[in-house]
Write a structure and sequence with these properties.
The structure is a homodimer of 248-residue chains. By secondary structure, the first copy, chain A, is α/β, with parallel strands linked by helices. Chain A is built from seven helices and 13 strands. In chain A, the strands form three sheets. In chain A, strands 3-2-4-1-5 form a five-stranded parallel sheet, sandwiched between helices. In chain A, a hairpin with a 7-residue loop joins strand 9 and strand 10. In chain A, helix 3 packs across helix 4 and helix 6 packs parallel to helix 7. Chain A starts with 7 loop residues before the first strand and ends in a 6-residue tail after the last strand. At the A-B interface, helix 1, helix 4, strand 5, helix 5 and strand 6 of A face helix 1, helix 4, strand 5, helix 5 and strand 6 of B. Strand 7 of chain A pairs antiparallel with strand 7 of chain B.
């Protein structure tokens, strides 16, 4: 099948939850789409209208979803795959390219990645500026990588004195990972290192709290939480947490 | 001076350049502001209107700018400090909190940080998905930290096999840093590691190119460039560059 000239595919970031954080670029793509594809809770954020087909699917079927989107766009549809946050950060953009590798006939399709506000940066903004210096982002899920690699990255990141953002710290199927991550941090960092737990950031369920590493427990994170670990200079200032720009 | 009840201060991210990437939240804050403060080129992105004072200032006066904003908001003004990208990523949010440390009398002021699309993630989206796995962000400027710390972070990040985004890779006053960063990468990474240079991303001057580490030269970056270094699995796929979700 050769792609029809007028079909296109956008992978769009809806941001962390608040509609006020959806970029006009993403809004325009949704307005122009004939088909929107994504995980059910993200599809639920798209307003139904005539001429728009909404294709919700379950979690963990990213490759099927991407292949479906390619198929539709190749047939002439205007397709948006919706991600939460930013599609390029632990979301659908890489899955789309993995699927595209299996369809070299579609390499010339009109494909665009539309950035969004990723949860880690929304959480940082709500807390103050804990990522205001060099930082890293680590997906704590070991669905697609060995846990040993996560451990290694955690240790090296702590030794580099990066601030850190953790995605997918804990889920029903992986309850132990975050406990182990805390253990590694306790070996590498001082006990008063600040850790911010940001749950369901920018939604009505938002809950943000900051504790020291000594006070942190695994139960403080769930699957809707991003965790931000400050660097060695991160400090509290009233209700805020921030990392100074200067470092020694 | 005690803060007047109706004054507020928002530190807002304008994104990398394209107005279609400015969030509605930021747009609303600008519409409600009496005063907008920032570096001249960012102030130039704000439409003048009756009742709005635009306060442009030069680079490298972040603390003065933040103190000025606090002063105005404390006197009852509705103030927006504009940053490019995301204010929490190598931008004005941390500078604001540094200034606030010197003004404990203003700690109860209504202060909000409004996230934006940071250059690294906009660049990643334009290129494909090179940051689609664990990654770090490093400011290569040594204005506010010793170069030895930058070197150390680069080495550890490469050993952790993070993808990396570099901000401020090179400027007229610091022409040598990026050459040294490339040298460190050549010591730690294989020669066919992919590096994307994204200049003036999402603006009319945008220029994006991807080369191997062996091909990369210092002149490929300037002060308007963000540099994205893939991890060991990052690959080309047609005109795109992406990092698979899976790692060994």
């Amino acid at each position: 099948m050769t792609a029809l000239a007028n079909g296109w595919l956008a992978v769009a970031g809806l941001g962390p939850g608040d509609e006020q954080l959806v970029t006009p670029e993403v809004r325009s793509a949704l307005d122009a789409a004939t088909d929107v594809i994504g995980y059910f809770p993200y599809i639920a954020r798209v307003a139904p209208r005539d001429g728009l087909a909404l294709h919700g699917s379950d979690n963990r079927v990213e490759l099927d979803r991407a292949a479906h989107a390619l198929q539709l766009a190749a047939a002439g549809a205007r397709v948006v795959i919706v991600s939460s946050g930013d599609p390029g950060v632990f979301a659908m953009a890489s899955a789309l390219f993995e699927a595209l590798e299996g369809r070299p006939d579609l390499i010339d399709l009109d494909i665009r990645i539309l950035p969004g506000i990723t949860a880690m940066l929304a959480a940082s903004a709500r807390a103050g500026a804990p990522l205001g210096h060099d930082f890293c982002a680590i997906n704590l899920s070991d669905n697609l990588k060995p846990w040993a690699l996560v451990e290694r990255r955690l240790r090296l990141a702590a030794q580099a004195d990066f601030a850190m953002g953790f995605y997918n710290p804990r889920s029903a199927s992986r309850p132990y990972q975050f406990a182990q991550a805390l253990e590694i941090l306790r070996q590498e960092c001082e006990p008063d290192r600040l850790i911010t737990f940001a749950r369901a950031v920018t939604t009505p369920d938002e809950r943000i709290s900051t504790v020291t590493l000594a006070e942190a427990t695994p139960e403080m994170a769930d699957m809707r939480t991003v965790v931000i670990v400050g660097n060695s200079a991160t400090k509290r200032l009233g209700r805020f947490v921030y990392t100074p720009r200067r470092a020694d």
